[in-house]
Specification:
130 residues, alpha+beta, 6-stranded antiparallel beta sheet, 3-stranded antiparallel beta sheet, 2 helices, 15% helix
Length: 130
């Protein structure tokens, strides 16, 4: 499948806001995401391909305005990439299965295991309650 036809499929499948975040690396406004205050037990999946990315067991309130997790459900579910797009080095988090943009990871969660804060857009995720 060519890259163009794959993008066409994503464009048809995803609403414009999700497409902008997942495929064009946009960021939803802070404190606007529907999953920010979700405290139910379950899994967080990539909204583009439905791969499990995070578990509710690793979600925490970082007070950043986006859902935050201290580690992926499976480290092979994500790819970390250098991101210098804002002239401020960051690490982008992408879905390993479909390459979609999920958010960024920071080393500032000092009160969490491993000290990582995976700061993820609600629009890039779907939640499946257990």
């Amino acid at each position: 499948m060519s890259q163009e036809s794959q993008e066409e499929q994503f464009r048809k499948k995803l609403d414009p806001q999700r497409y902008a975040v997942l495929r064009e690396k946009a960021t939803e406004p802070p404190f606007s995401g529907k999953l920010l205050n979700n405290h139910e037990n379950g899994d967080y999946l990539c909204a583009a391909c439905h791969q499990v990315i995070f578990s509710s067991q690793t979600k925490f309130d970082s007070h950043s305005g986006w859902p935050s997790f201290f580690e992926p459900e499976n480290r092979s579910a994500v790819i970390l990439k250098e991101d210098n797009s804002l002239n401020n080095p960051r690490v982008e988090v992408c879905c390993a299965k479909c390459g979609s943009h999920l958010g960024h990871v920071f080393d500032d969660a000092y009160d969490q295991p491993g000290g990582k804060r995976y700061c993820i857009n609600s629009l890039s995720l779907e939640f499946i309650k257990k």
